[in-house]
Amino acid sequence: MRRHPTFLIIVLGFLNALxxxxxxxYLPAFPQIAADLGVAVSRMSLSVSVYFIGFALGQVIYGPxxxxxxxxxxxxxxxxxxxxxxxxxxxxxxxxxxxxxRFISALGGSAASVGAIALVRDHIPAEKAARAFATLMLVxxxxxxxxxxxxxxxTTVASWRAIFAVLAALAIADLALVMFAVPRTYSPDxxxxxRLTPILRTFRDALAQPQFRTYTLAGSLSFAGLFVFVSGSPxxxxxxxxxxxxxxxxxxxxxxxxxILGGQLNHLxxxxxxxxxxxxxxLSVQVIGGIAFLALSMTFDLGKWATVVLLFVFLHCAGIxxxxxxxxxxxxxxxxxxxxSSLLGFLQLGMGALAAALVGVLDLTGPLPxxxxxxxxxxxxxxxxxxxRRSSSEEVGxxxxx
Length: 402
Hints:
Layout: H1 5-16, H2 18-24, H3 30-37, H4 45-69, H5 72-91, H6 95-123, H7 129-157, H8 161-181, H9 196-208, H10 210-240, H11 245-269, H12 275-299, H13 304-330, H14 337-361, H15 368-387, H16 389-396
Helix pairs in contact: 1-6, 1-7, 1-8, 4-5, 4-6, 4-14, 5-6, 5-8, 6-14, 7-11, 7-13, 10-13, 10-14, 10-15, 11-13, 12-13, 12-15, 14-15
């Protein structure tokens, strides 16, 4: 059973879901944590930013380690660091301590995400990788539906510190899954250097690969809309439209469901069309949706549900573009897959974080900041994809079956 593709992908999905659970589970406890540590609630957002910084750095650290030492050992080490740092978050008595432990836990936890992507390419044939990544996205997308509600329940029946105990237990469960449910098929490559110059050369070589560069950058720009939504939606719906915490959670779940439906639609589309074609068409629809969102935000006073519908369309497309972009970006590699997948994750996270930061910089009100950044990112991805279409088609070929 452990070699059955569906079972394996579900296991890797749980492994990949550690980071979104780490981010989403403790959000409802912000007021309680702030009061206990003696800081303003607004400062709690720093703990999210610190985690993203550590997670981005971890992406580029674990890639070479996964190639040099095999998949399991770096994942074991990363999860062990995560568990210890998360227990530090649980026991800390200062806000500064919380920030430090969150940063360390991000460095450790990123091994789970990088490892999950590399393991997909180890066990799933390249021509089926897009469907595998879509299933991975399905498991990943469930976390925004569950984590805030679970976190709210925990804070109701226990202290906020119990949330970090739950996260540590989740990491231990992931560790057991990797140990007992993931077959060992990748042989460590002792030729992979851990010195900085060769590592940077490996990343440079990956970026020099036209297919990797094209689909990584275009896919990251498309997927940046998710980061924009997460960072901008509380201000739009709770401050702008006056939605309460419960209502915001319901809206968040609806829009997360849009991404899940996108992943399921992708499964159906890939039975009839090539991954390249599905990615291009979904990105085109996303561009149209982003531009429509921007135009309507500038022209009309958009209401709550009109904003929800437009965001649903945009995020639905992101649920289709993400798995195809990841599969196509990694398809050319038979060696240094761990390094390539870590660079892929780093660029996705980095570009998404920059897009999210841009929302806060813009001195605009209502849905307009989100709409502006989403339209810019998706359009930039579409332009980049089509400007390199000739070189990409030479690498992967144009397939229009179906």
